[in-house]
Amino acid sequence: MEPKQSSGHGDGATLLGEASCPLKVTEDIWFGCCSCTYVTRDQRLIVCHLAAHGDEQSKCQHVPMSGSKSQVLGNPLKHKSEKPFKCKLCPRGFACNSLLTCHNQTHAGEKPFKCMLCPKAFAFNSQLQSHNRTHSGEKPFKCKLCPKAFTQRKNLIYHIRTHTGEKPFKCKLCPKEFAYSYLLTYHNHLHSGKKPFKCMQCPKVFALNSHLQSHNRTHTGEKPFKCKQCPQAFARNFDLQSHNRTHTGEKPFKCKQCPRAFARNTHLRSHNYLHTGEKPFKCKQCPLAFAENSSLQSHNRKHTGEKPFKCTKCPQAFSRNTNLIRHYRKVCLRGNEGL
């Protein structure tokens, strides 16, 4: 059986034939995009995916194919967009010369497109148009599978992958796949050991920009992630999510060797060392080593004499929080009860 070429042009629904009954996803029918490698059994998802291609898909002379998965993947009409206009300063290529001209402005540092409402300027007119929507609040790019809408087409394309599960960016060195190209770029740094993101205030360097941004807050003291149930705030969203579990009691990280479970993955990893006997956290001032980093930090205070845990009822201070809690219950709390 030859793969069928859907008739019509326009949006994804027309491309698949609006009059026909929607195919059940249980049938062995697959739909393939002719502009990229995406295939799916769900008719709604291919409609949404085609809409994300926008003008690129509407100008395409090869409309989507349907058939068995092997037929769709082997479809000879699948093609890659030709990009004959190559940049001389980087590997990028473009479908037309005008796009190359605009791209060259990014190398020259030119930003001829200026916002009329604020001081910002842009290398591309399309960037200015997208920026203008931050002033107008307009969100013309609407998801067909949920109520969300976006100011930029690329953000719609990224969002659609949360519905389709599509991960088109594949690592060449391991099986990992990513929904976004920048995540693949960052992941590749882990293989190469490259750490291109440098802190401007200390010698630290990072493989990921997000890690640098989090680190920068240790210098500024900024804690933008605020708990909605208590006054605590955090420098990283990750730490806020972990903290939220102290309110919900959720412990999603379960040990495979015993019944214990933990609110943080780092706590599970440390706990696993108790099973393996491994003690990777070594004191630099004596031969002792520990299974958990928190135990090493507590031990280090014996060397430094630091006592950061201070009682609010009396002048005493302690090197470990557990000692403070024990003191409070046995001394200060009982003393107050006797009054």
TrEMBL record:
Give compartment(s).
Nucleus
Q: Name one GO cellular component term.
A: nucleus
SUPFAM superfamilies, alphabetized: beta-beta-alpha zinc fingers
Q: Name the coiled-coil region(s).
A: none
PROSITE patterns found in the cross-reference section: ZINC_FINGER_C2H2_1 (PS00028), ZINC_FINGER_C2H2_2 (PS50157)
Q: Which GO terms describe its molecular function?
A: DNA binding; DNA-binding transcription factor activity; zinc ion binding
GO terms under biological process: negative regulation of transcription by RNA polymerase II; positive regulation of DNA-templated transcription
User: What keywords are annotated for this sequence in UniProt?
Assistant: DNA-binding, Metal-binding, Nucleus, Repeat, Transcription, Transcription regulation, Zinc, Zinc-finger
Ranges for domain C2H2-type come to 85-112, 113-140, 141-168, 169-196, 197-224, 225-252, 253-280, 281-308, 309-338
Q: Which family does it belong to?
A: Belongs to the krueppel C2H2-type zinc-finger protein family.
Q: What is the protein name given in its UniProt record? A: Putative c2h2-type zn-finger protein
Q: Give the originating organism.
A: Ixodes ricinus
